[in-house]
Amino acid sequence: MRKINLSVAFLFFMGLSYLQAQERIPQVEALLEKMTLEEKIGQLNLLTPGGGVATGSVVSEDVEAKIKAGQVGGVFGVSSPERVRQAQEIAVKNSRLGIPLLIGSDVIHGYKTTFPTPLGLSSSWDMELIKETAKVAAKEATADGINWNFSPMVDISRDPRWGRVAEGAGEDAYLGSQIAIAMVEGYQQDDLTQPQTMMATVKHLALYGAPEGGRDYNRVDMSRTKMFNEYLPPYKAAVDAGVGSVMTSFNDIDGVPASGNKWLLTDLLRERWGFDGFVVSDYTSVNEMIAHGMGDLQDVSAMALKAGLDMDMVGEGFLTTLKKSVDEGRVSEEEITTAARRILEAKHKLGLLDDPYRYSDASRPEKDILTAGNRQLARLAATQSFVLLKDHNQVLPVSKKAKIALIGPLADDQTNMLGTWAPTGDFKLSVPVLEGFKNVAPKAKITYAKGANITNDTAYAKKVNVFGPKVEISNRSPEKLLQEALKVAKAADVIVAVVGEASEMSGEAASRTNIQIPESQKRLIRELVATGKPVALVLMSGRPLDISEEMEMPLSILQVWHPGVEAGNAIADVVFGDVNPSGKLTMSWPRNVGQIPVYYGERITGRPAASEEFEKFKSNYLDVVNSPLLPFGYGLSYTSFEYGKSKASSENLRANEEIIISTTVTNTGKKVGKEVVQLYIHDKVRSLTPPKKQLIAFKKIELKPGESMTVEFPVTVEDLKFYNGSLEYVYEPGEFDFFVAGSSNSDFDGTFTVVE
Ligand code: BGC
Fold this sequence. Notes:
It catalyses: Hydrolysis of terminal, non-reducing beta-D-glucosyl residues with release of beta-D-glucose. With about 750 residues, the chain is of the alpha/beta class. The chain contains 23 helices and 27 strands. The radius of gyration is 26 Å and the shape is globular. The chain binds beta-D-glucopyranose.
């Protein structure tokens, strides 16, 4: 087999774009000419004056004095046109050179109009919708003075113990890349000087989603080929889409913390990928290199700068030590000028150097924030993110005239609806499920009971409640809560139980080793099922859960993540059937924690298990089968779809040619429905062990009852490329299997051959 080596052309191209990126901007150069070393170092300093959510133990002090002294390049945690104008005025009128500030924020899933958590949004598989949510987030955030966003988070993860899976797009590099592009395009659009657009930050470079044991901030260790093929593509996609900045991660890579990793920040990011924006650390991640064992503050700050890090978030190691390092010859002034140039170029791209008050228009918040249209989009986005996991006896959708027992600790809750990392949102604006049910089904007879606490464990609740009460343990005993619920349940036609995780049971520093529904709620579910009434679970979580027990029960399950500001209305839309669910999982759900990592794209071993039957001396477990409980790409609908056999337009594929892989999909049920049609391939022989299955394309379609559609996917050798053992991006001739289906759990039914 001959390998096609494109690396020379690739490197040439990248080298060229790297050179082009070096073009100087006169306005920036003129400023640099005037700047002292201290003022250049000042530009590398990012502070937060407090008032926002601090994600570390430090909050910056004396911010105003430092801005006046030219010691601050940007701030975050400051919002509203007035406050931002004030901050800019301090910088522009009171510092020697009057350089405006970058105004950052974590706008993760919407600004004030909170959309579903990103993992939920990814389950829509709808790139236009995702882009639209980012666009609206940018419009709202910029109306409130923000010009720089710490999103998208594109960390691939196969470990649902890690709480931050809620912030990403799941386990797959291809889907994750498409979502990264959609978000960067939504935030930045094509002109960053426009006041409705903000600069995006792709984070966290890199591999933050693969911490050992799923424990947040933990070490990461991974082969280069796995990195390049399975974890790096979404960051690269964001860079290719023109993302303005990159944030480093807390973990180490090959034993070197990301914030001080020259291979990562310079060799890979700038030289290989051609990135020409600036790199910001994560919250005190430069200082944390001391704990990693990299030296003292002066050592780690010099190391970070020399590695290619331009801006230091909160830790002030750059501010307090870089001058000394220059004096001692450990860092050159040129290196500091380079970093300062990148920060100033970002300000230039945003139009701030021409008009520092571009994002301080006091008339905008009222016009642009939380408009009816934005809330409508939040409601739509939420309905599109829901995944129907099971529909026993078609309990769902529920009739709008039914007598409904609405039960559960999340059924009349407001504090958890926005989900994790919604610091700019306001939970008081969110619609509880009970209210949504009344809005959408005013004729239904709805009775509510809490039924259980999210957890009965007060110590656990305390840990979850760091940002305010998310888990409220009732004064009434668990037994009393249960009896109240059973009374209500027995008098109803149907039970809808809203259960799951509090919002802060996932997210940052919220790893779990037991990812089941908490026992207090499991007990409630068992008792509700025992009434013999039809039961639908509305399941909220930031992550995939182990619901093996619930999947065995005679009930229906609608996974709704944390749906955002329109939670209750969106849930009601789907529960009552006004919207047919069409979301598909973007992470596999495990049968138990011991199976983790379990993901669809695993590479094949030398002793693969042929079936779910246990076989001695094969790669399987004694106590659980290999397949996940719920596979990647899975999700049901109120209607049903049938797939024909998939076909390739030609048996052979050559470079510069295209074949069409197609299949016919038919809506065989009784309702209009959307379906995510997915194309998977398998490279049968290649120089690196291939993944068992690999998603290379998808399309979301809508079909009326009885309607059929031929769905076509053009495929070229570009779609078949991977990074080989020398990290060259190549395809290799030979046979490829394929199938087109509604989930990753399907068998190959066609083959084509790549010929030279
Ligand atoms: C998180 C980042 C976030 C930053 C600033 C950190 O703890 O890891 O994702 O952007 O805080 O709020």
